[in-house]
User: Fold these one by one.
Assistant:
Number 1:
Amino acid sequence: MTIRFFNTYSREIEEFRPLDPAGRKVKMYTCGPTVYSHAHIGNFRAYVFEDLLQRHLEARGYTVERVMNLTDVDDKTIRGSRSAHLPLREFTAQFKEAFFQDVETLRIKPADAYPAATEDRFVRAMIAMIEKLISLGLAYQAEDKSVYYRINRFPNYGHLAHFDLSELRPTGRVKSDEYDKEHVGDFALWKAWNAEDGEVWWESPWGRGRPGWHIECSAMATTLLGEEIDIHCGGVDNIFPHHEAEIAQSEGCSGKTFVRYWMHCAHLLVDGQKMSKSLGNFYTLRDLLSKGYSGREVRYALIRVHYRAPLNFTWEGMEEARQALGRIDDWLLRLQQAAPNDNATEKIEDDKFFVALDEDLNISAALGHLFEQIRESNRELDTGMSPGRARAWLGWWERINQVLAFEAEEEKPPAEITALAEQRVQARLARNWQKSDELRDAIQSRGWEVRDTKEGQMLTRRPAPNERAGIPA
Ligand code: AMP
Ligand code: ZN
């Protein structure tokens, strides 16, 4: 087994070999949300891709230690807390909470740690790193009292993004009054306090202020995972300046290679443009839940396209996700009915799903193979499948579902629903189609869906629009 990933740093597909001498442990850092509002599903495309990556590595026997940071202090969080008239901590707490709920709904495995930038020990680590960079001549305090990274002193600056330094322009994340900087591309490590920051400041050797966004990730990654890590992920918009800056800071301090594999996912698009807060073309997970879609349907829609290919968000895509999961559900039901007990007498020796993912997470090939096998085994079921073989297919699926996390949660219909469903069976036996349809509607209005399959009537939980989002009807 050889796993290969595209490394943004080299722009090449490389064989994956972790730092761990035993070759089992993998340290992974993933840039998390800025908690000033609900994350949109573009953000979640990045997090779902990272989840697929982690789950696949685990399926291949690695132990993954993953850290995801929460950016809870920056211009946007400060602005948000001021306009909400709430202390910063209180303002961001609600969005942290919402983020964790969304992570669960999308079946993303929780990270081992969610460090927040404002925690004391991380602020201390940030200050220590900045002091070190200054002592090495890699940073300086400018007249505006802020501290900047001196990019001309870091020869590798621009390597990740394949950028020529002379092309650099200031970016939105950097304060605009930067006439004090030596180079337009020098980025802030420490931002001196100003009136707009209100109550938000920390003491530092350079006076009151707050950390810049990039140093937050370098300090949190190094504190929790060490100076060298295996994989660092984010969306492509993170490559520059954020990840470029992380390399300059971390490697500037340690002199070691900070990250072995940089992996970035392409954007989720809407009508050809990046889904983003600033363009206003975004949907939150909650928006989709309130339209009646489930977490796993959104998960499917976000995962199904290769992570390095742009993915267009469409309602047809959401319907396709629903249908694809419906096919899996029907197939599993048939297998379960054909395998009434737990005795596994056979094993399906088929690794192609995982082999496809070994090759830079080729999810399209992996899903293609899954549906091919579903078709094949459905044909076998048509002609009669032995319980042992059906059980073996279920075992095969279990391994795959560890990676995909697509399986429907079992939810027993309440007595009222089973009674309606039983009446519907009777109506159909009496060929009373009108009554059968009325009963289907009645069941649907109570949040359940009836499907007629070869094995009989099947009930799935299908919350009515608004019900899932907790919006009262
Ligand atoms: P932010 O909260 O803007 O720092 O973004 C959090 C994560 O979501 C980062 O890894 C971004 O690269 C990623 N991201 C933001 N917008 C999109 C999008 N439209 N498609 C995919 N990833 C995105
Ligand atoms: Zn980051």
Number 2:
Amino acid sequence: MDDIFDAIQKSAKRIKDVIDTKDVGYSQKENASGETQLELDIKCDMIIEEEFSRVACINTIASEEKEHAETLHSDGQYFIAYDPLDGSSLIDVNLSVGSIFGIYDGGFGAENMVAACYVVYGPRVEMVFAQNKTKLYLLQAGEFEFVKEIRLNEKGKLMAPGGTQQNWESYHKEMIDGFFKEGYRLRYSGGMVPDLHQILLKGGGLFSYPATSDKPNGKLRRLFEVFPFAFVYKIAGGEATNGHEDLMSLGYAHVHDTSPCFFGSKYETTRVKEVYAKNA
Ligand code: AHM
Ligand code: MG
């Protein structure tokens, strides 16, 4: 696992350099989810693949930018699913973006997840690594330094409600409105990494990307986005649900499968489950 941690750090430093220097024009390709891939997405994907290919314990990788999983070392123990540059469309307006990694032992699937990690490229570069604890690191003078362990409060103050509101279910809208009436404050940039990072570091709240009429299975991908953040939040003392089930109890059929998702502290996720149970 140390080798993987090291390869993620190397990738993050290289990605930071690319973000700082690379032209961000659109390329002509589409990724497996049918979205336009930025040249930057492809470059970041290549960096991570290159770093992971040097780590013998990594068996197979799956990336948001690759249609299929790829085997690197057939006798390796770990399977890693990653989103090389989540929120990359925010780069041209200079908002924060991130890389997300889910580390699985013996095969992909939430039940095999043993660690999860994300990197936020903002005014500073920070990394959160969750294994038996959720730990925050800061990139300083070329090295990632441990800062502190992160723990969520039972109840937070922030609300990050994703998805197009016009396409929300009415009970979902009522629930979100209810949180705002209770005093929650809106904090939504459109990048799940900085949005979830903010909630984690400010003690709690709720991030949601629900099922909507245009996206009945949500938008966020299980292996690269949903399971890793579910793991990070649960280890930090929070919860992660699709409204009915724990996100970590879900399976997947295809590498790019999505799921509605809610991540937060216990107070808010308990409300989500109550509201969704009534409207099943
Ligand atoms: P991406 O992987 O193509 O960047 O998409 C994922 C991003 C998340 O960071 C964010 O929470 C979500 O898409 C926002 O979606 P929307 O634009 O529908 O609000
Ligand atoms: Mg993404």
